[in-house]
Design brief:
Length: 285
C-alpha cells in the first residue's frame, strides 16, 4: 500500500507541476498559485463539512499550518532559482528535498533493508539525472544554488509536516483544508505585495476564465498528492514513501515529451530508467 500511494503521489505531483508550468506561461506564477489553491480550498471545505472533519481538530493541525506557510516560500524560491538558472542544474538539485522526510524517518528509528537502501540510492540518482543536469555551460550563480537548496528543504519539510498533521482520513481532509487556507493567505499576501510593487496580477487579456478547468486540476491534483503521500507515510516506512513520492520530476519530463513533444536527453532517459529500477527495488524490499 505504501508503494502504491507513494507512486500515485508522484503521478499527481508530476502532472500538477506540468499543468502549473503551462499555466505560468500565460498567467503570473503567484496568480496561478492563489487561484488554483482557492479552488482547492472550496472543494476541501465541502468535503470537511460533509465528513464531519471539524471533530478531528487538535494540536496536530499546527503541522498543517506550518506546511501551509513553508510551501509558498519554497515555491517562490524555486521559481526565482529557475529564473536565475540554468534550469538543468536547478531542477535536479530541487529533488534533494527528499532528504528531509527520509532523515525524519531515520531519526524516528526506521531502518530500510538492504534492497530498500539500494533502491533509495538508485531512485534518487535517477530523479537527479531525469532533470537533465548540465555539466557544461554557463556557471551557476551562488544565489541560484542557495535558493534551490532553500526550496528543496521547504518541499521536503512540507512532506514531513503533512505526514504528521493527521492520523485518520477525516483528520487528513481537515489538515489539507487548513494547509490550503494558509497557502492562499500567504500567497495572497505575496501577490498583494507584488502588485503594489508594480507587477501585474492578471495576464494582458484579463481574468483567465478559460483556464479555470486547468487551474482546478492543478490545485486539486496537488491536494490529492499531499493526501496520498500522507496515507503512504502512515502505512509504511517514511523512508520508502518519501523516495517514491519524489519521482514526480520523471512524470513531468514524460508529460512534456508526450504533450509538448520535448525531446528527452539521453541522460534524462537514463535517469528515468534508474528511477524505475529504484522503484522496483523499493517495492520489493
Amino acid at each position: 500500500m505504501t508503494a502504491l500511494f507513494a507512486l500515485a503521489t508522484s503521478l499527481l505531483w508530476g502532472l500538477a507541476d506540468f499543468g502549473g508550468g503551462l499555466l505560468t506561461r500565460r498567467t503570473p506564477a503567484l496568480t496561478v498559485v492563489v487561484l488554483s489553491q482557492s479552488i482547492a480550498v472550496a472543494v476541501l471545505g465541502v468535503v470537511v463539512v460533509a465528513t464531519g472533519g471539524w471533530s478531528e481538530a487538535g494540536p496536530q493541525l499546527w503541522c498543517a499550518v506550518a506546511a501551509g506557510l513553508v510551501g509558498p516560500v519554497a515555491m517562490l524560491a524555486f521559481y526565482k532559482a529557475l529564473a536565475l538558472g540554468p534550469m538543468g542544474v536547478v531542477s535536479p538539485l530541487g529533488s534533494i528535498g527528499v532528504a528531509v522526510p527520509v532523515g525524519v524517518g531515520l531519526v524516528l528509528g526506521e531502518r530500510p533493508g538492504l534492497l530498500q537502501f539500494l533502491g533509495i540510492l538508485v531512485a534518487v540518482a535517477g530523479v537527479c539525472l531525469a532533470g537533465g543536469p548540465q555539466f557544461r555551460g554557463a556557471p551557476v550563480q551562488r544565489q541560484a544554488i542557495a535558493l534551490t537548496l532553500l526550496a528543496a528543504f521547504g518541499f521536503g519539510a512540507v512532506m514531513a509536516l503533512i505526514a504528521e498533521a493527521s492520523s485518520t482520513l477525516t483528520g487528513l481532509f481537515l489538515a489539507l483544508f487548513v494547509q490550503r487556507v494558509t497557502n492562499v493567505a500567504a500567497g495572497g499576501a505575496a501577490l498583494y505585495v507584488s502588485v503594489r510593487r508594480g507587477s501585474p496580477a492578471l495576464p494582458a487579456g484579463g481574468f483567465p476564465w478559460r483556464s479555470l478547468p486547468a487551474l482546478a486540476f492543478v490545485g486539486l491534483a496537488d491536494v490529492a498528492a499531499n493526501g496520498t503521500y500522507s496515507i503512504a507515510a502512515q502505512h509504511g516506512p517514511v523512508t520508502v514513501a518519501a523516495v517514491l513520492a519524489s519521482l514526480y520530476p520523471v512524470v513531468t519530463a514524460v508529460a512534456a515529451r508526450g504533450v509538448l513533444r520535448e525531446r528527452l536527453q539521453a541522460i534524462q532517459a537514463a535517469g528515468a530508467g534508474l528511477a524505475l529500477v529504484g522503484t522496483v527495488l523499493l517495492a520489493s524490499g
